[in-house]
Amino acid sequence: MVSALRRIRDATVGTEWEGCVYLVGGAVRDRLRGVRATGDLDLAVLGDAVGLAEFLYTKGIATTWPATYGRFGTASVRIGRRTVELAQTRSESYAIDSRKPSVKAATLEEDALRRDFTVNALYQNLHTGEIWDSSGVGLADLKARLLRTPRDPDITFHDDPLRMMRAVRFAVLLEFEIEESAAQGIRRNAQRLKVISAERIREEWTKTLSSPKASRGMRMLLDLGLLAQFAPELLPMVGCEQGGYHLYDVWDHSLAAMDNLSEEAGWRLRLAALLHDAAKPQCRTWDGERYRFFGHEDEGEGLARRLMRRLTFSNRDINRVAALVRLHMRAGSYKTSWSMGAVRRLMRDAGSNFAELTTLVEADAKARRPSGKRPDMADLRRRADAALQPVPTALWSSPLSGKEIMEALGLTSGPEIGRLKHELAEKVIEGEIAPGDKEAALKALVEIARKPA
Predict the structure, then answer these.
(1) What's the pTM value of the predicted model, to 2 decimals?
(2) Least confident of 15-29, 113-127, 189-203, 377-391
(3) N or C end: fewer C-beta atoms under 10 angstroms in the chain?
């Protein structure tokens, strides 16, 4: 037994809470699966859960005064390194346009009905160790790896539509299947996702994207009608044929690229793989021989930014994914004949995303026909490493500041100064001027200034 649970059990022997505290949810599910529980611990309390939390603090078990939510009869405490959530057994009812429930104290049986899936509605008495399968099928569903709702799925998903996104996440992360009546319930209630905040949808989506099996989750989101609710701009990818050296339509190609990433790849790189060709449907033209997709990387950057902004991703994450989408064609066009200047420019423009960019290009190329040409990313990485040895990218800039350029040429501030700084930086990248060499930069500045803009 986890240390935090053992301490709670021992502290409550002989109190009103003895025999009335149950471990429930993912911790029970995972322990029965033989998986160590590492997240928060959820306790269902037949009685005063807030009072129990305060009792644990006064006894020195909890290290923090409980954060309480009186409306819901819940409290949260820290015990050692674990967060323990305590909730009075309750029933819930929901207004049609909200996912915030009205609650009242209830029996353990009624509490079980508000759970999302039968495998998460398994209760273990903290004092006796007894497992109570509230639905009667939870243990069987766990063995069969099935996600089934403990009551009519229309009620479960209508009451809390985020459970539909959670069903996909659990199916992917736990490698379970969604039971057919539950899947049908999701399809019928998919539009209820509109009452969920963008932040909550984003959290569930990124958790699914974090899995090495994320492509399965994307297929499920599409099939269950959920993707259409929060990312409708991705639907045209389905059935958009590409021809040529491509094996699949845009949707299946993008999912194949996701599959080609390593298990260690993060959700941002997986999202970039999903979105890298997302604008191809709107850019597709026919030249009489084959389909063309001119500019899809630039359009795709805009699509990625709009989608991620709507789902309240951070600016840092938006910029990172958008950069990968924008640059994937440029990096994918790499040839060993590129000059070192071209390599340095790509490194400069990709910045800290350079390594992930080369990984994305490799995953993209592997998702095409084996006979197609594949850019040599290993060679690009080798040359990039060589470029960094004498000079880090931070020094691939103009040796002269804007003020120094104005003083040298007798100019005032304006767009021309920016242009001249850019020209000097280009000469550094090409190796014509050594990084930080102001004397050489001044000589070059005079020549640049003589040429028309």
Answers:
(1) 0.88
(2) 377-391
(3) C
- pLDDT beyond 90 at 434: no
Q: The domain 235-390: what is its CATH number?
A: 1.10.3210
Give the three-class secondary structure for 57. helix
Domain boundaries, the chain: 3-136, 145-230, 235-390, 397-450
User: How many Cβ atoms are within 10 Å of 317's Cβ, its own excluded?
Assistant: 15
Pairing of strands 82-88, 41-45: parallel
Separation between Cα atoms, residue 82 and residue 37, nearest integer Å: 11
Write out pLDDT tens, residues 112-129.
999 999 999 999 999 999
Query: pLDDT for 178-231, tens place per residue?
Result: 999 999 999 999 999 999 999 999 999 999 999 999 999 999 999 999 999 999
Fold exhibited by the domain 3-136 = Beta Polymerase; domain 2 (3.30.460)
CATH class of the domain at 145-230: mainly alpha
Tokens found for residue 420: 């001249």
∠ at Cα 415 (411, 418), nearest 5°?
Answer: 85
Q: Element (H or E) spanning 103, and its range? A: strand 102-105
